Amino acid sequence: VRHRNTDGRKSYSLSKVGRSNASQGYFLQQAFIKETGKLKITAQTSAHYTDKSFEEKAIGGVKPNGCEADSTAEQQVKITNATAASEPAAPNLQLHQNVELKCDALTGTATRSCHNANFAVNGFIEAGIKYAATAVKEDLNGWTSNTHTTAAKITNERNLLGDNVTNTNARLNNLKKEAQLSACSKMLTNYAEFESSTAFKRTAIKTLLSDFTNEKESTTPPSKLDDALKAAYGTAGDKLADNIWKKVSSSTAPTSKPDGETKTRLDALNDWTALTDVLSRLSTKQLLALQVRDLPADKVDTTKEKDCSYKNGDDCKGYCKMIEGVCKPEKKGKEENEEKDEKHLQLVKAKTRRHANLRILSGKEKSAKIPVFSSARNWL
């Protein structure tokens, strides 16, 4: 699952970039389609074209226009494995610049053709530009005879999307393959989702059978593991919720607060940050508890003890001395004081370490966070 999710996240990031690029192209297309450009120049006095001839000049301008809101049907599409697999590809729409050109040489007269008559006052040439997803059929026949007021039509494609749509569709297809929704739907609260997992079986043998060094997925006989699982989780896991999850959910764990530590119910943890905080604190407490338990005992030099212990009566002499009927090394002056000081120092150090660790264990001191990840994540 983790491998598939890693691939899925990579594919998702790539498809997200592709969708962003494609959506910008769609946005530009929409802006062009909503604009209608026109240029009309009209003959003035003496049929001359002057600065007054530009009767209409709304050509070439494009204003930003947002896309229409999604339809209700589109917003209510529910994504499942089935619908994701049959989701249509993003359309590779192409924009077409469609131009219509008219010419009227003698406005208001019967003979208005521009190819066999001079321009008169108010005669004009008019060009209109529209953008659309479809191209108009090119037609120049309107300018071959006395029909110039029937517009000539020409079209050109404007490719604003490049290869963004093609790349996006390919990345979305990879995402569908690598990020299956079924992998994300598995739940640790559902016994059937993980009972066949080898990682779960190894963990169960370690914990339920106290075989902490186990790395196998089965026991000899197999019924040994089956009986342990049944006792812990019921038949086919029917006691999993009662025996495990209800108790887990109602348990409290240490969590961070601005001035130290507090207790929080596990069922109130709803994100990875909160869960990591709890696991870090619990792990730190466990490590510190082990350190307190495993503090080394004070070392005692037993060499002289052994030398004196076998002596009896008059043989107990030199650096040996009878003390309460037992021959022991005699402590003198500076040596005795140094030994007492060393023992006292070691005792103080041990008490200090225990005190500091217990303050962290009790939550009175902040502890460093240690990244911890539960092995249960590998069961699915």
Automatic annotation (TrEMBL):
A single GO cellular-component term on record: plasma membrane
Gene3D superfamilies the UniProt entry points to: Variant Surface Glycoprotein, subunit A domain 1 (3.90.150.10), Variant Surface Glycoprotein, subunit A, domain 2 (1.10.470.10)
Origin superkingdom: Eukaryota
Its membrane topology: Lipid-anchor; GPI-anchor
InterPro entries: VSG_C_dom_sf
Subcellular location: Cell membrane
Membrane as UniProt keyword: yes
Keywords: Cell membrane, Glycoprotein, GPI-anchor, Lipoprotein, Membrane
Chain's role: VSG forms a coat on the surface of the parasite. The trypanosome evades the immune response of the host by expressing a series of antigenically distinct VSGs from an estimated 1000 VSG genes.
Protein name: Variant surface glycoprotein 1125.2686
